Amino acid sequence: MGKYYSPSGGLPPQTHLTTERAIVTEAYTVIPKGVMTDIVTSNLPGFSNTRSWIIARPISGFATTFSQLIVEIAPGGGAPKAEFEAGVEGVVFVTKGKLNLTLDGELHQMEEGGYAYLAAGSEWGVENVSDDVVSYHWIRKAYERLEGYEAKSFVTNEKDVQPTSMPDTNDVWKTTRFTDSSDLAHDMQVNIVTFQPGGVIPFPETHVMEHGLYVLEGKAMYLLNNDWVEVEAGDFMWLRAFCPQACYAGGPGEFRYLLYKDMNRQVKLT
């Protein structure tokens, strides 16, 4: 397992070519790492010594079910209360540094690879008590309650979760699932997908789940609708529901990404 990519900000020089790999279409969007500079960051209410790259939000022609932020907290910064919107669940995944998470009165010391599912209605905050910056992904979704089921908060680390090999792939395609796909208490999953060099998604997946994919490590060719796009660590992809997708991981190292998808709910028509 290699090191997770985190943006470092900064600003290209005036001599830098403006052309980049950013793509926005009705079916998908690619936000390359090179455009995540200082001038596109946002402050967050209730947070101190913090900046964020908001890489997905519900707007027309883009994400419909979730928002995703890359949050960077400087030493001494954080928020005693991070989530102010009622009925919103979240996932925090740490890619750099050490983060103190206080969840419903209990302190959790999270390191790189740390993962927290934050159930709707839970009280939680974050603090950086180290001497270095900490960076993490924060994925938010309005929780769709289902009678008889209730998702519960938990904290773990990727290294403590056994990846599952996809059927008939000889271990070249694995998924680290932090919740059980069959657990109807959960209306979303945030997983880590890992391909060994040469691994592929061998058909264009076309399905109802919306996706957010942040590349943690490596590079690959990714099929988005009709286009093969080269992506690398630090790039973000959004895929609308039913956007065809496939992947070829050419190497030389592992290709790994953090994957959001909505699931386990009936389609609302009224």
TrEMBL record:
Chain ranges of the Cupin type-2 domain: 70-139, 192-258
Keyword Hydrolase set for record: yes
E.C. number: 3.5.3.26, 3.5.3.4
Keywords: Hydrolase
UniProt superkingdom: Bacteria
GO molecular function terms attached to this record: allantoicase activity; ureidoglycine aminohydrolase activity
Entries under SUPFAM superfamilies matching the protein: RmlC-like cupins (SSF51182)
InterPro entries with a match to the protein in the record: Cupin_2, RmlC-like_jellyroll, RmlC_Cupin_sf, UGHY, UGlyAH_cupin_C, UGlyAH_cupin_N
Hydrolase listed as a keyword: yes
EC class name: hydrolase
NCBIfam families per UniProt: AAH_UGLYAH2 (NF040771), PRK11171.1-2 (NF008373), PRK11171.1-5 (NF008376), ura-cupin (TIGR03214)
PANTHER family found in the cross-reference section: (S)-UREIDOGLYCINE AMINOHYDROLASE (PTHR34571:SF1)
Protein name: Bifunctional allantoicase/(S)-ureidoglycine aminohydrolase
